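haha ok so turns out i had the wrong file open the whole time. this is the CORRECT one, sorry everyone. sequence first:
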Amino acid sequence: MRDKSIAVLAYALFTLTTATLFLRPSELFIGIAEWPIYEVLILSTLVLTHQSIQGHFRWYYLQRQPVTLCVVGVFLAVIVSHLSHIYLSGAIEGGTLFLKTLIYFGLLVTVVNSPARLRGFMMTVAICATAMVALCVLDYCEIFDFEFIQHLDDYDGVNDEDEVQTTLRMRGTGIFQDPNDLAAVIVVAGILCTYFLTDQSFDNLKFGWLIPLIMLLVGLLCTKSRGGLLATGVAGLAFIIVRYGGKVATVSAVLGCCLLPLIAGRQTEVDLEGGTGQDRIQLWREGFDAMKSPDLLFGVGQSNYVDVVGLVAHNSYIHAYVELGVIGGTMFFGCFFFAALQFYRMIRIPEGVTHPELLRMRPYLIALLTGWATALFSLSRCYVVPTYLVLGTCAAYLNLIWIHTESGEPLVIWNRGHLLRLVSASACTFTGLYVFTALMAR
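then structure:
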């Protein structure tokens, strides 16, 4: 009984920890600005679950959940990327910062250990993320003025009179200051709200989820994020393919391509020959150039992309390959590769999943993974908590899947064969990114 109470308390504290990622009390209430609320909550959760969390990082369980194994690999790659340059303080600082993210990921897969808890966690993310977006929309539309929200006047070229033009883009709060960051969160929240909108257990109350969905759509348009719009489209297609099949997805894609220019404006204008598109490709090329050296294996060092190129890559995969080398970049890529592989293996489970709600979640979580993975093509977010929130949610779900099958066997077990598959897929991805950059850079 005592262990059950501790587990419930740990889950509650972790839920509050997640809520503070989106609704930061220190920004909402000036009087508590200096209070380390997030740190206290996550450390309290860790104290309550320190024995359980250790199990997920033992070799036996790492083999049975390669996503966790790859996250640990990223942590080690961060440290090695600095040690390879004899930069001890960088290894300590970078390792410490990513350790905080690793702890969050570990707590997520530890405390979210039942379908009911996963559902509650998803609802927390949906509500808190939507609430944050609502505050930003109200500020952006000048309905309320929140001092802690500052939007971005983004350079948008010059007109015929050689006058500089700017576009006002909506920013988020806290760690979501970049409009593309906020757009990625909107995609996540939109998928989760759609999941609850289709939940028959809510009866007619489920239609109340249309309100946050409308707010999120407005927010996505206010960010004017091309990456966010692309992530929305890819996530939507992934959902439709899994739920309704390829033919329906093809028709939906055609209709979407016809309608988007009418409602999204700037977000549908993609120019790889000039503007921000070409600027980013130039950043990628300079990053790849920095790898043509002894840094190929272990990278230029975590957080050193800016020092080498002048700006971040605005592409998490290239950013990881350049900073952590092909080994660390492969570990980062592997987090998404093994999550996707396990979702694919679900189709091949002979006896199927015995829990109906877990089965209903599948297309939504596939959309969640693909949407975030797509958003990372326009963001450098290799080490931050939101990326591992998405990965952790998928890992927690996939852990539950193999528990709720008759065989009780993991969907993927780390072995030599899967190592070769990871290396091959990572090599193809790295080569594809490099060739694309070499061809498109001007």
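Residues 62 and 114 are 19 Å apart (CA to CA).
again sry for the mixup
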